[in-house]
UniProtKB/TrEMBL annotation:
It holds the Pfam family Cytochrom_C. Keywords: Electron transport, Heme, Iron, Metal-binding, Signal, Transport. Gene3D superfamilies: Cytochrome c-like domain. Residues 1-21 form the signal peptide. This is Cytochrome c. It comes from the Bacteria. Residues 22-122 form the Cytochrome c domain.
Length: 128
């Protein structure tokens, strides 16, 4: 019994730690990987890739004026956090035939942080 209690005492600091929170500031730094092809914020425009304002909740292939691949337009996806996480890990696996050429982000923490950064911007690029 004493060994069990000793083990529990050692584990208490870890059990009381909250799950890693999303860090929008770290996500902004991660967005540097996206910046060559995408813009976000007020005045954002389509580049090689579509602007990303209001991404979470938006249907895939829906940014006006951007020429999407048929695969992306017809994917039927709505971007939520889980769908975006799957996509950004390996875009060509999630949407075969996408035009997006990106190796992906493998770190779960980095994906969560990037998502937190993107979620700050509404469809008009206003930061909440």
């Amino acid at each position: 019994m004493r060994a069990i209690l000793s083990s529990l005492v050692l584990l208490l600091p870890f059990l009381s730690q909250p799950a890693a929170a999303q860090d929008a500031s770290a996500g902004e730094r991660s967005f540097a990987k996206c910046r060559a092809c995408h813009q976000i914020g007020e005045g954002a425009r389509n580049l090689v890739g579509p602007e990303l304002n209001g991404l979470i909740g938006r249907h895939s292939g829906a940014v006006e004026g951007y020429s999407y691949s048929a695969a992306n337009k017809n994917s039927g996806l709505t971007w939520d956090e889980a769908t975006f996480a799957e996509y950004i890990k390996d875009p060509r696996t999630k949407i075969p035939g996408t035009k997006m050429i990106f190796a992906g982000i493998k770190s779960e923490k980095e994906i969560k942080d990037l998502t937190a950064f993107l979620k700050q911007f509404d469809k008009d690029g206003k930061k909440s």
